[in-house]
Structure formats: C-alpha cells, structure tokens
Amino acid sequence: MPLRQVYLSLGSNLGDRRQNLANALDALEAEGVHVRSCSSVYETEPQDVTDQPWFLNMAVQCETSVPAPQLLALTQEVERRLGRVREGKPPRGPRLIDIDILLFGDAQIATGELVIPHPRMRERRFVLDPLLEIAPDLRDPSTNEPLRQYLARVREQKVKRLDPLGRAPAELP
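RE: above sequence
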C-alpha cells in the first residue's frame, strides 16, 4: 500500500502529560507511523466531562502505509500499552493518552468503529488550533471547505499554546 498522509490528535490529562505525548509519538514511530510534523503543545479545558484535569493536546502529521482500520487498531494498542484503560471508564473522562485519527489522506470512511474525517474535530478548538498550526490550508474531505472556517465557531473554548518547554502559557484569542 502506498504511503498516506494522516493527521492525528494526541491528548493527555493524567500523570506526566507531556511525557505521555512524547511516549505516544515514540510508540507510533516504532510501529511504522512516521511523524513528519508536530504542532505546539496546547493546554486545554475539558469539553464534555468538565470535572477533570485540563488536557495537553497536540496534532501531528504522519505518513503510513497502514490501512485506516489497522491504524485505528494500532493507535488503540499504543494507548493500551501506555496505560490507557477504557473498560469501566467514562468515554470522555480522564485518560493517560488519547490518540484520534482526524484525517486519512482524503478518505471518507464510516464504519461501526471508525469515522474519518473525525466527526467532532470541527467542534473542538483543541483539535483545530494545533491542526491548523501545522497545516493551515487543510480542507474537510467531505465538504471541501477550509477547516479554518470552523475555528471562529469554537473561540469560546479555553486553549493555551505552550512553548516547546511547556513554559510561558499564553491564552489564544
């Protein structure tokens, strides 16, 4: 299978959040998902289950020859190996690591386990800000609309971009 350009969103709000993100990137690389570009790390307030610690989030551009369904299985296995427990936990509750497939080339996929483009990425500033940082001209494959247009609709969500060392937080407008 040819190499496909893939965009992933990574998040963590338990333990050493920054190290959890770094460990996930290393694990993805070890599995043949080649990280080509990483956004800044963003500190973001929880969106759905609000009574939990703030998250660190980032977006990454990758290349892989792994088909989308296998990439989903691979990302879930990486999460499991890094300590994520899904059973008995709220679906959007606290977690050591979360890896979501946002875009898989220009594919549109809808199965019981996988929907690409990610169905909620347009509603989440913690996804759009880092994603547009590394790929400002991305378009939604299902509508061909620029993803940038969705950012104005989610400005009220609190997001702070951190520098590479995690210092000097600055709230984004």
